[in-house]
Amino acid sequence: GAVVSQHPSWVICKSGTSVKIECRSLDFQATTMFWYRQFPKQSLMLMATSNEGSKATYEQGVEKDKFLINHASLTLSTLTVTSAHPEDSSFYICSASGLAGGPSDTQYFGPGTRLTVL
Amino acid sequence: QKEVEQNSGPLSVPEGAIASLNCTYSDRGSQSFFWYRQYSGKSPELIMSIYSNGDKEDGRFTAQLNKASQYVSLLIRDSQPSDSATYLCAVNRRGAQKLVFGQGTRLTINP
């Protein structure tokens, strides 16, 4: 149980275009979803926290107009990187917590999406 | 002082031995503690969670929590080369939704 999927697993796009990444909880209701970014050989960096039906809470230094997060249902959250630039190239990982059969604060991670902006 | 501290390693352990990973945290209000394993190029995978003082065992893994000393550890018995990964300690403060992660300890099991 507690499976989280992400789509796509990798994406290559041109500079200036927008990219949408989906995060789904497959077998539980995710009341809260989190979006992280990780650069090579660095730690996870939390970008934002989203609760179903509410606006996301962004971490300091993360541009909310550039990284649009939507959490419209208990099983789906999306991250849209708008007007992507090469410096946005990174490994984007979502996690979900909620009604997964265990403590509600346990985060289960998706497999990640590798974004490359040319 | 970082909120969650781990020795970044690398920690090298011979195959079959016990690997011991340590983590300290600064917020006494922390209530939930997690160990994640992250293979290179992959996302973190939950190994164990622990909430009460003492030991919690799951297969070859044992998590230990000492709230008075503000540390949490992970023991891996009978270490295997497949255990080679970065191990992330994460802490959840009371009332908070988000986890605070340590920088991770890179573990290498030598055959």
Report on the architecture of this protein.
Chain A is mainly beta and 118 residues long. Chain A has no helices and eleven strands. In chain A, the strands form two sheets. In chain A, strands 2, 4, 5, 6, 9, 10 and 11 form a seven-stranded mixed sheet that branches. In chain A, a hairpin with a 2-residue loop joins β7 and β8. In chain A, 37% of the residues are buried. The mean pLDDT of chain A is 93. Chain B is mainly beta. Helix content of chain B is 0%, strand content 58%. Chain B is built from no helices and eleven strands. In chain B, strands 2, 4, 5, 9, 10 and 11 form a six-stranded mixed sheet that branches. Chain B has a five-stranded antiparallel sheet with strand order 1-3-8-7-6, with no helix packed on it. Chain B is globular and about 40 Å long. Chains A and B meet through β5, β9 and β10 of A and β4, β5 and β9 of B.
How much of the sequence lies in strands of chain B comes to over 45%
Helical stretch count of chain B? 0
The run of helices and strands of chain A is EEEEEEEEEEE
Largest interface: A-B, 22 and 19 residues
How many helices of chain A? Answer: 0
Average pLDDT confidence of chain B is 95
Structural class of chain A: mainly beta
